[in-house]
């Protein structure tokens, strides 16, 4: 753990009005005297549930990856949501980094698989690593609770002491998320690496910049799509 794990950056812009307000609201229930562990848990659930998971609106504009932009948009996929959690943690003095991993989604929807060029592998999936009680703890705040309920997916829970990663099985005991590679953590978001990996593994259409208010599908469509597939599978 170094001082760089507490710095504000272009992406971890926790001094912005949007992020400060988000943090203040998230910590209102635990109070200013809360421990770092209690603050980390409150921030995790705020990012998980107050920012909708939406994999269909992936902007390739660097500005869209700033924590303040994620708060303002109100939605994001795993990398922007991990950026926000990392920035929020740093804002209250909790050292934090962002990590990247490759995961295979065994319950990927047909429409999302098609958009990804036929693969079920999510390259450079984002997570946060927080320094709590003298150890690094990983946390993935991606899937909001409403999405989990509609997909029949077990929500990722965080207690500030154990890693909170994607669940390997869903609520029906079906294989769900499989971690196939961990690329480690970074002091700042390695966005160029992500762009290069996406260009290598995904069709160009996935990397076409889209206005924040539009997209081929919305998060509600994604949830409905997943629920339909779950019902068909019984």
Question: What global shape is seen?
Answer: globular
Radius of gyration: 17 Å
Look at the structure and give the mean pLDDT.
Answer: 86
DSSP, total strands: 6
Order of helices and strands, N to C? HHEHEHEHEEHEHH
Would you write up a description of this structure?
The structure is a single chain. The chain has 234 residues and is α+β, with helices and mostly antiparallel strands. The protein has a single domain, classed as C8orf32 fold. The chain has eight helices and six strands. The chain has helices at residues 17-27, 36-50, 67-73, 78-91, 110-115, 145-151, 191-201, 219-233; strands at residues 52-53, 75-76, 96-105, 121-132, 135-139, 177-186. The chain has a four-stranded antiparallel sheet with strand order 5-4-3-6. Strands 1-2 form a two-stranded parallel ribbon. Helix 1 (17-27) packs across helix 4. The chain is globular, with a radius of gyration of 17 Å. Mean pLDDT is 86; it is low at 209-223 and 226-234.
């Amino acid at each position: 753990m170094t001082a760089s794990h507490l710095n504000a950056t272009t992406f971890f812009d926790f001094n912005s009005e949007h992020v400060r307000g988000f943090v203040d609201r998230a910590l209102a229930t635990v109070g200013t005297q809360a421990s770092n562990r209690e603050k980390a848990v409150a921030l995790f659930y705020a990012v998980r549930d107050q920012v909708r998971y939406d994999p269909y609106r992936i902007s390739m504009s660097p500005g869209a990856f700033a924590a303040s932009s994620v708060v303002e948009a109100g939605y994001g996929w795993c990398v922007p949501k991990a950026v926000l959690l990392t920035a929020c943690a740093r804002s209250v003095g909790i050292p934090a980094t962002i990590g990247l991993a490759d995961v295979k989604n065994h319950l990927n929807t047909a429409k999302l698989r098609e958009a990804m060029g036929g693969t079920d592998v999510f390259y450079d999936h984002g997570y946060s690593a927080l320094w709590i009680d003298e150890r690094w703890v990983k946390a993935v705040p991606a899937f909001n609770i409403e999405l989990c309920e509609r997909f029949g997916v077990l929500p990722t829970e965080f207690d500030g002491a154990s890693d909170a990663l994607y669940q390997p099985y869903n609520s029906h005991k079906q294989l769900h998320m499989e971690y196939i590679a961990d690329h480690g953590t970074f002091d700042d978001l390695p966005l160029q690496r992500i762009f290069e990996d996406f260009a290598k593994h995904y069709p160009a259409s996935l990397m076409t910049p889209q206005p924040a208010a539009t997209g081929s599908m919305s998060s509600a469509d994604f949830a409905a799509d997943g629920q339909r597939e779950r019902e068909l599978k019984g």
